[in-house]
Amino acid sequence: MKRNLFKTVFTLAVFATFFSCDEEFLERSPTSFINLDDTGTSGQLNPAILDATLNGVYSMMINTGTGGTTSHEDFGQKGYDIMNDFLSGDLALTSNAYNRYASFVNLQATVDYAHNSNYMPWRYYYRVIRSANLVIKSLGGNDIVPDSDGGKHSLGQAKALRAYAYFYLTQMYAPEYDATAEVLPLYKDADDPVQPQASMQLVYDFMIEDLTSAISLLNGFVRNSKTKINQDVARALLAYVYASKDESASNLLAKGLADQVIASGYPLMTGAEVTGGFNNISTPGWFWGFDITLSNGLDLISWWGQMDVFTYSYQAAGDKKGIDESLYTEIKASDIRKSQFDAANSLQPRGKFYNAARVVEGQRNIEDDYVYMRIAEMYLLSAEMSAKENDPTGARTRLKQLLSQRFTNAADYAYVDGLSGSALLDEVILQTRIELWGEGKSYLSMKRNKQMMTRGSNHVFHAGLSVPYSDDRLTYMIPRAEVQNNPYIN
User: Fold this and answer.
1) Domain coordinates of the chain in residue numbers?
2) pLDDT tens string 270-288
3) Predicted confidence band of residue 44 (pLDDT cuts 50, 70, 90)
4) What DSSP character marks residue 1?
5) CB 290 within 8 A of CB 281
6) Residue 51 has what pLDDT?
7) What pTM was computed for the model?
8) Which residue, among 211, 203, 130, 196, has the nearest Cα to 169 in the 3D structure?
9) φ and ψ at residue 247, rounded to 5 degrees
10) Measuring CA to CA, how many Å separate 473 from each of 103, 341, 464, 467, 483?
11) Phi-psi map region of 454: left, alpha, beta (phi>0 left; psi -120 to 50 alpha)
12) Is 390 left (phi over 0), alpha (psi -120 to 50) or beta?
């Protein structure tokens, strides 16, 4: 039995309080975690309060209902990874017996501000922001550097979590980086009143400030679980923020950060590991994830339930999901990743994501872990930034380092040496889509590379459809609940 990160009675009490709070995400006095009357001393005198509060935020990333609904698609970060992968076109809904994701995949939900698909991520990410702001306030505010290492590390995690939430909001609720566009209400403090939409420039500046500070504050932090954010996770998040701006200076900063994470020493997943189930947080190539235990109470409403045929839920029962057929055909036969997908069963990822027992519908209560980030992402992001900034040697080197773990014969990826310019960048983007399929990263790539979304022939809805990244249907709408409760948004 894996160690349970959240076993203390105090932490359980915190969770119970948190999940019984009012559903309105614009509540201006969110006291679910920390008594704001005691914020001047609570964090200093009781580090366990801060730890429990941060653990509560990490737990929110995997818990059901954190988007404010009872929907079977509402289960935290991995739920939005699925939705985003659908919008990228790389994840295909190949049959829809139970009607899950139907209006979303049919591209109707994202243009309806009353649809829960727009509400759930908005509410979830702003709950993360609210909770992070409480931790930051308890430690003295945005501009304070705590005296203790424990205080610094708690503050660093909270700032990184806040930036993580704002980053996903910028990617999902705006078509692209536009410095002057008004995008999101920006809440910097727990006591902020309802805010108007800030410009994207202001939101990005705030994310960069948060993550830069987090990297400094997390210096020397040795985490006891990959669930927690450390310097490497903060650097990777900042790399994604810079890369999403799609500007030369930012690209170079993103590459430098990705290279720093690579230098930390996480090994690339081997061929055996990328076909080994993606179910264990101890996998050396993972550097951020969640150690799922029975006490987390996950079952069919979960990422595993939606994606794994060997878990009792929708993937096995008839809402089948597989790789886009056109993308599948681009995977070379000698590439180990080809075997991640079952051509005889709707191209489901039966060889990538699976419970180790391999019994169809066998896993009822989830113990398999969630992956948020792994080192392959940084190799691919470094290669992408190099390709964009006229460093073909750097791009080819990083790409070949990855492909050396996906092919047994170097001759099968020797073609990379002959690539340059747009052909090299296209290859890096293709390998990113193949390598990170089903992990929630294809949508981010589509947005920052301003690509076309094209669906192959195996999609239930809109097979063969091609639309640009900027199409309204590929970006979420600010939900009705926010419009009704925020007087500054029309």
Assistant:
1) 28-274+372-485
2) 999 999 999 999 999 999 9
3) low
4) -
5) yes
6) 85
7) 0.92
8) 203
9) -125, 150
10) 11, 28, 16, 9, 19
11) beta
12) left
Cα gap 158→172, rounded to integer Å: 21
Residues 6+ apart with CB under 8 A from 282: none
Helix (H, G, I), strand (E, B) or coil at 224: coil
Q: In the 3-class helix/strand/coil scheme, how is 116-149 assigned residue by residue?
A: HHHHHHHHHHHHHHHHHHHHHHHCCCCCCCCCCH
* CB 278 within 8 Å of CB 352: yes
Sequence letter at residue 216: S
What CATH topology corresponds to 28-274+372-485? 1.25.40
Among 18-27, 123-132, 257-266, 380-389, the minimum mean pLDDT is found in 18-27
Residues 6+ apart with CB under 8 A from 478: 113, 118, 122, 173, 489
Burial class (CB in 10 A: 0-12, 13-18, 19+), 188: middle
Burial class (CB in 10 A: 0-12, 13-18, 19+), 490: exposed
Which residue, among 71, 92, 49, has the nearest Cα to 341 in the 3D structure?
A: 92
Amino acid of residue 327: L
Q: What is the mean pLDDT of the chain?
A: 92
- Write the CA distances from 208 to 41, 214, 250, 390, 485, integer angstroms: 28, 10, 11, 25, 28
Q: Look-up: residue for tokens 């306030």? A: 137
> How many other β-carbons are positioned within 10 Å of the β-carbon of residue 409?
8
Query: From CA 288, how far away is CA 78, in angstroms rounded?
Result: 13
Q: For residues 309 and 316, give the distance between their C-alpha atoms in angstroms, rounded to a whole number.
A: 4
Instruction: Say how far residue 360 (Cα) sits from the centre of its chain.
Output: 27
Residues 225-263: b if buried by 16+ CB within 10 A, e if exposed: ebbbbbbbbbbbbbbbbbbbbbeeebbbbbbebbbbbbe
End-to-end CA distance of the chain: 51
DSSP 41-90: THHHH-HHHHHHHHHHHHHHTT-TTTTSS--TT-SSHHHHHHHHHHHHTS
Q: How many CB atoms lie within 10 A of CB 211?
A: 29
| Cα→Cα distances 439→42, 55, 85, 185, 327, Å | 38, 23, 8, 28, 15
Q: What is the residue whose two structure tokens read 């954010």?
A: 229
Identify the residue whose tokens are 């900027």.
Answer: 470
Judge contact between 401 and 416, C-beta under 8 A: no
Residue 46: CB atoms within 10 Å: 15
* Residue pointed to by tokens 């009357």: 37
